[in-house]
DNA sequence: AGCCATGCACCG
DNA sequence: CGGTGCATGGCT
């Protein structure tokens, strides 16, 4: 009797930063993966004893297209350098095709059969929605 | 911890 | 030769 059913159909999401989408001029080719929030458990375990280990992952989007991303652990901090972070690279085409901008969200899911899917969520840019004008110079005065 | 930025290698 | 992506350093 085992109780392991947590690894089924999990999904994570990441809000794109300007640098992730390339808007800052950086040629990043992908996005940073936060080390916190349990996000890492979505990805395969990488060999931390070797430098910059990586895993190629296949994702299916909503139109059933297949995408190949590279999950890389830049860990040269434990070798020569200063890096200690995870990245998902090779996403430029996907970002462009869907016209994703900073603030938009990427949702990655993992089905029970191991299939990984990718979705995106447009940021709600209704910035002036809650700026309800109430005639602030008027107020009720009791006499 | 996460985001920004860049030199260089590679490929069209 | 210019765009793209990797790897890496720097800055907040």
Automatic annotation (TrEMBL):
One of its GO terms (molecular function) is endonuclease activity. Pfam families: EcoRII-N. Gene3D superfamilies: DNA-binding pseudobarrel domain. This is Restriction endonuclease EcoRII, N-terminal. Keywords: Endonuclease, Hydrolase, Nuclease. Signal peptide: none annotated. InterPro entries: DNA-bd_pseudobarrel_sf (IPR015300), Rest_endonuc_II_EcoRII_N (IPR023372). It comes from the Bacteria. The keyword Hydrolase applies. Residues 10-93 form the Restriction endonuclease type II EcoRII N-terminal domain. SUPFAM superfamilies: DNA-binding pseudobarrel domain.
């Amino acid at each position: 009797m085992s109780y392991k059913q947590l690894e089924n159909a999990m999904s994570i999401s990441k809000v794109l930063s300007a640098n992730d989408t390339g808007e800052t001029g950086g040629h990043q080719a992908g996005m940073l993966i936060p080390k916190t929030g349990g996000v890492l458990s979505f990805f395969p375990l990488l060999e931390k004893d070797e430098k910059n280990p990586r895993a190629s992952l296949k994702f299916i989007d909503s139109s059933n297209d297949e995408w190949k991303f590279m999950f890389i652990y830049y860990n040269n901090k434990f070798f020569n350098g200063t890096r200690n972070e995870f990245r998902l690279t090779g996403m430029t085409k996907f970002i462009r095709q869907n016209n994703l901008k900073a603030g938009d969200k990427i949702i990655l899911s993992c089905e029970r059969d191991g299939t990984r899917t990718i979705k995106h969520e447009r940021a709600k840019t209704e910035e002036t929605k809650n700026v309800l004008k109430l005639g602030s110079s008027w107020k009720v005065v009791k006499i």
